[in-house]
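Subgroup meeting minutes
Present: P.N., E.W., G.H.
Scribe: E.W.

1. P.N. recapped why we're keeping a running log of single-chain structure predictions: easier to compare across weeks, and new members can see raw inputs and outputs side by side.
2. G.H. added today's entry (170 aa).
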Amino acid sequence: MKIEYARRQEAGFTLIELMIVIAIIGILAAIAIPQYESYITTSKASAVTSNFKNALNQVTSAVAATAAGQSVDLNAGLNVASAIDPAAPGVSAYKFGTPTSCGQVGITGGLSATTYVGPTVPNPINILVDTGDCTDTALKTAITNAVTAAGYPTALTGSGVTVTANGGVS
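Output recorded in log:
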């Protein structure tokens, strides 16, 4: 006795299967996209804070070096020509003078891009972070929170963080 089974030919997915897959993808995207945007904003703010700390370290090191009778090139130390502002691509991360771009770190106090610090240091040298030019309020808030959490809320004000000729930071 021979038993024959009916063969069912399947040509693809059913409409229900496709709708379920699309719904799952939509749910995942609704969860992932805001998290990704938040991650990008937070990483930009962290990079701005890192640039600020680097500028502060370079300036305080320059003050210490000049106290020892050495000359230091802050322009080269900060790598001003190559460092890019994470909050404003295409803009230098550092500026000798008042910063003019969201997240840019400004170094004021008589310094210029070609100034070698030494044998004397201009007093005081101020280091500040620009948030006034931030059009993205979430980024502005993230930069403000990150710099404040690092312990330098005055870096966001008009005068910034001050490094005095004796190396004091206020």
